[in-house]
Amino acid sequence: SCAALCGQQWHSKGSRCEVPALTRISYTSTMRGDANKASQQIEDIVAKSVKSNLSCQVSGHMCYDAKLKHVWQVLEGSPEVVERLWTSICQDQRHVVDEDTVTVEKVDSRNFPVGWGMRCSSFGQGSSSCEDCAKSQLMQLMYKSVINDAQDSAKGIVDQVVPRAMVKNSQNGITGWMLYNDRTSVVYQVLEGSPESIERLWERISNDPRHTVVHDSVRRRAIPQREFANWSMAMNEVERTAWMEQAY
Questions:
Q1: Among 16, 20, 73, 200, which is least packed, fewest CB within 10 Å?
Q2: Is the model's pLDDT at 99 over the cut of 80?
Q3: How confident is the model at residue 247, as a pLDDT?
Q4: Global confidence as pTM
């Protein structure tokens, strides 16, 4: 089972006897039921998680693909609290956990700020126009794309792009977050900055032949403040497993 599988990892990683400062767990899952109901359930889950996660000092992030009903989530906190949360996640009948995507790490520091509690980047039907964006000092652009890996490995392309993006984004006052799923070659990205900087960057991204943008996923909106203020480009990844490398 999901919880039992994770329990093996919980106690097998690291041979030192002292209690680690933090545990980080990440996984993917698929929501059950129709897409509309699943999206509402995700909203409910996030709304309830924000307060409870803050109170027990758990940080993390969720990415939800509303079209595919796919969830990616990472949680960070004390080993006891994260293990308790993970048990309840495994028992939740609203989704099916992809057991081979579960990773558990003992870490010394957080990737996500405690003040978040839980943030969710939801990728669904986009809204490509934004009348308020031009008048706003800040805008956010979200999109989903698929890497075209005919000439190079998809992961190789992502590994080339991200370091350069971090430098350029920092120079142009752009912050954001990316999730790359190496199992599906799908990229989810959030970009934040001035409308001029974002649209200039988007012109390059949308015309890059190395990937294909899912056009109905593109969403623009004016924002009062940044959600990813500390990152010129933070990236998370769902890695391939050994059995996937052997798949025909």
A1: 16
A2: yes
A3: 37
A4: 0.83
